[in-house]
Amino acid sequence: MIIGCGAASISAAIAARKTDPDAEITMISRDHYTAYARCGLPFALAKEVPSFEALVDFPMDFYEQMGFNLKPESTVTDVDAKQKRIEFESKKGKETLTYDALIMATGADPIFPPIKGSEKKGIFKLRTIDDGKAIDQAVSKSKKALVVGAGLIGLEVADALVRRGLKVTVVELLPQAVRPLLDEDFAEMVHKRVTERGVRLILNHAADEFLGGDKVEAVLVGGEKIPTDFVVMTIGVRSNTALAQKIGAELGVTKCIRVNSRMETTVKDVYACGDCVESRHLVTGLPSVSQLGTTANRQGKVAGVNAAGGYSVFPGVLSTSVTKFFDMEIGYSGLTEWQAKLAGIEPIVSSVSWKTRAHYHPEVKDMEVKMLFDPDLGVVIGGQIIAGESVAMRINLLSVAISNRMTAFELAKIDAGYAPPLNDAVEPIAMAAESAVKSLKAT
């Protein structure tokens, strides 16, 4: 039995089917859409993706072919872990089913703080296809918008709205954009690009009040009334743990569901995966929250294998992330400088400004690389990259390097490919590592 039908759920179901071809697999989803790519919502809003329906991963007949018993638009109302029984309610009424193994992939919901005036119309979140369609309708009859939150999703949404011809303001409570993933020096590059594209970026301020009649007409920010036709809230998500807590599953220090390496909760025969669980960081070994589609897919596979009687383990996370907005690609893996210091590590930091292709190629773009190394062992523990292109492949290389505890000495000697239209003869990852080697030798 799988609660949910998102990235973690579908990965778990497929893995369970591969592990046990004869297993009865039931998926209960509160959404009327089957599994789809939530990360694609801002790009569908921008019309870069042709439609919101294009984000759906599999057609309905896929579930039939795989032998999945899908229960859409259904809400789980009770779980009895002792009797191994689930109660849920759908359009058909109330139903009860039993299970041998249960996978909780209950995901997360958008955080919506109790701001005065938040009951007004024209204030949206972006978590579902229906959310995306509602914003899309608002865009078609608007000239200006305000986005609350300057994380990855917030800036992706801001980019989408600018591309749709709107004048956009972004409000962020923290002193920088993309705080969890970037250090201040790299965030400054983001600030510059965002404002160059005409977005007003307000840092160190919250949305204090939504003003207007039945519909929002302005937002009060630091005493200033900023006119807007609608608002999009993108300040993060909170894990759905209510069902897990109801059956006595323990939460971790992050307030997400505690699981072991096999994705088992503290309740027998109950597994959990995806946005609702607590992970272990591969560098620090400390509890971490990694609410990413990639993490959900990997955890779902492990949960599905084990729930179906196989054996698989999840090693942990680096929260490797990539995105693109305002023609700027951003990548992150491991630890930032401030995260390393919070973990008690004074890292050796190496930064390089280079090019994405041969300097003479007409389509060459700038690239900034920042890498962090453990001062004692010389192993790479984190990296950030900003460039006009070719970020994903390099941040994935860094993810592999961090996972395998490669040292600066090893990375300085990587055998990288070269062709003028694809990559420079000198690899910036190797350059940054070589610079770190000098610092390591000096210490």
Q: What would you note in describing this structure?
A:
This protein is an alpha/beta fold. The protein folds into 3 domains: 2-37 and 54-108 and 239-307, 3-Layer(bba) Sandwich (FAD/NAD(P)-binding domain), CATH 3.50.50; 112-233, FAD/NAD(P)-binding domain; 327-442, FAD/NAD(P)-binding domain, CATH 3.50.50.60. The chain is 27% helix and 26% strand. The strands form 7 sheets. It has a 5-stranded parallel sheet with strand order 3-2-1-7-18. A 5-stranded parallel sheet has the order 9-16-10-11-12. Strands 21-22-25-24-23 form a 5-stranded antiparallel sheet, sandwiched between helices. The longest helix has 15 residues, at 293-307. It is globular and about 65 Å long.
Topology overview:
Blueprint: E1 2-3, H1 7-19, E2 25-28, H2 41-45, H3 60-65, E3 68-71, E4 75-80, E5 85-90, E6 93-98, E7 102-104, E8 108-110, E9 123-125, H4 129-139, E10 144-148, H5 152-163, E11 167-171, H6 184-196, E12 200-202, E13 209-212, E14 216-221, E15 224-227, E16 230-233, E17 237-239, H7 242-246, E18 270-272, E19 279-280, E20 287-288, H8 293-307, E21 321-325, E22 328-334, H9 337-342, E23 348-355, E24 366-373, E25 380-387, H10 391-403, H11 408-411, H12 428-442
